[in-house]
Amino acid sequence: MEIEKNNRMNSLFEFYGALLTDKQHSYLELYYGDDYSLGEIATEFDVSRQAVYDNIRRTEASLEEYESKLHLLANFQAQNEAVGDLVRYVKSKYSGDPKLNELLARVADQAAR
Fold first, then answer.
1. Angle CA(71)–CA(73)–CA(77) in degrees, nearest 5?
2. Which positions are tagged coiled coil (predicted)?
3. Alpha-carbon gap, residue 113 to 101, rounded angstroms
4. Cβ atoms of 55 and 41 closer than 8 Å
C-alpha cells in the first residue's frame, strides 16, 4: 500500500507540482522524490518535524483536490491503457502492415509524453 501511495503522489506531483508553493514543492520533492525522512527535511529547513508532517499532509490533500477537479492523471492513465490495447490488437491482427505499425508507433510515442 505504501508503494502505491508513493507512486500516486509522485504521479500527481508530476502533473500538478507547478501549482504548489516553493515550500510545498521542496518538501514533496525531498520526501517522495529523494526519500528524505521528516526529520531530515525539518533539519534542512530549520522547522519542527511536526511542521513538515503537517505541510506534507496538506499538500497531499491539495494534489488530490486538483486531481478530483482536473482529472489529468486519470485521463493520462486511461489514454495510455487505450493506446496499449490498440498496440496489442494491431500487433496481433496487422503485424505485417508497415505503415499502420509506423503510425501506431507515432501515436504510442506521443501518448507516452
1. 115
2. none
3. 19
4. no
CA–CA gap between residue 105 and residue 86 (Å, rounded): 11
67 CB-side CA count, 13 A = 20
Cell of 33: 522524490
For residue 91, what is its C-alpha cell?
500487433
Residue at grid coordinates 533539519: 43
At 74-109, the pLDDT tens digits run 999 999 999 999 989 988 988 889 999 899 889 888
What is the tens place of the pLDDT at every residue in 16-74? 999 999 999 999 999 999 999 999 999 999 999 999 999 999 999 999 999 999 999 99
CA proximity to 47, closest of 21, 32, 27 = 27
